[in-house]
Please model this.
Amino acid sequence: MPEHKKPSLLLSLMPLLIMALLLGVGYGVYKIRAEVLLVVSATLAGLLARLLGFSWKELETGISDTIRQAMPAMLIVICVGLLIGAWIAGGTIPMLVFYGLKIISPGYFLLTSCLVCSIVSVLTGTSWGTVGTIGIAFMGIAQGLGVPLAPAAGAIVAGAYFGDKVSPLSDTTNLAAIASRVNLYDHIAHLLWTTTPAYLIGLVIYYFVGMQYGDQTVQQEQVQQILAALQGQFHFNLFLLMPPLIVLFFAVRKLPVIPGMLLSAAFAAFSAVVFQGQSAAAVMNVLSSGFKSQSGYAAIDNLLSRGGMMSMMDVTLIAFCAFAFAGVVQKAGMLQVILDALLKVARTTGQLIASVVASSVAVALMTGSSFLSVIIPGELFSPAFKKRNLAAKNLSRTTEDSGIVVVPLIPWSMAGVYMAGTLGVPVVEYAKWAFMCYLGMVFALIYGFTGFAIAAKKRDDETLPGS
Model:
């Protein structure tokens, strides 16, 4: 076996600098797909590793080991796609959206819009879908009320990202758990320590600011169109609540995730055949390729035309490419050199949390990608948290607080472009009103330096429930 050289700090930083340059320019400016850029980064990192004496077989083993550790969580991501398709086809998600819209209160527009978008986003697992449908309806209502559009858009974005952040159906939430190798439900529960106070502060502000708009008449025409489109396409009954109740039961009892998802999907598929009048063959196709809504109303069709296992392939692919890069730099000892240098500076838990926050925000600014803002810091800092005997859910929580939810506040990110274009309000105008999206990292820093709500590591395999 050839002798391996220990990489210098400069050589160890080179793959990360190359990746930052490729992603910042290629993805951020020229919109080249991140998967290709990550493969190029991994290739260049591999060439540097070869200079250190590592063989291709050794690097291949490093890549395989990294991906193998993430496989259980990747299976969950694929099942999430299956579950979303089943819930839509069975009428569960449409029914919950329908009754969620009915609770709109004209007197408390900002508060209600944030709450309803949160509920819809939790149940659908998509902030973009929520903003692109319910969010559009709320912006129409805001115009009828005379509510300024900037706070309206901020409340909608904050609510949508709160729901996306804590939903077990969210691809980014699953990805944050994958990147840090932590159990999904433990990750979500730990998130609530920082997310809840940030969210509640926003709700309080929305309540007091929104009171001045309470005496005006709401123009609910867009909402009524959505309600009519939902009623025209689906038949609602209490049995449709069974699929989410099954997932909730498995989560509360800390039972295995995948069996619960499959059982929930089976109930939803049954509902699609019995209550929605779909054929068994059509439902099977939905589980694979997703549901295609044909209500005739574009806004609701955009929300409901999604799901299926194939919809999660982009998430799976980008994770594999990122893990390939991580496997190379980790096998070559580059990550260890960087961490050793970093830990000389980050001597306390607070400094370590601050380093994660800074790294996640930096990646978000450089790439504008929610996925990369959790994958890269998650890979980089995971060994440091283990070395300090800190639970991986501290890391996954911090990457979400300072990565995923910050991206819609960046004007050049895809999320920022989408939100601004969809809601008709520039990012710089709604950003300050999306309180939940930036207050979470403030609480993450406070907890890091005070030690409050910082969990110790219980076991080596933190993908098990109760870790």
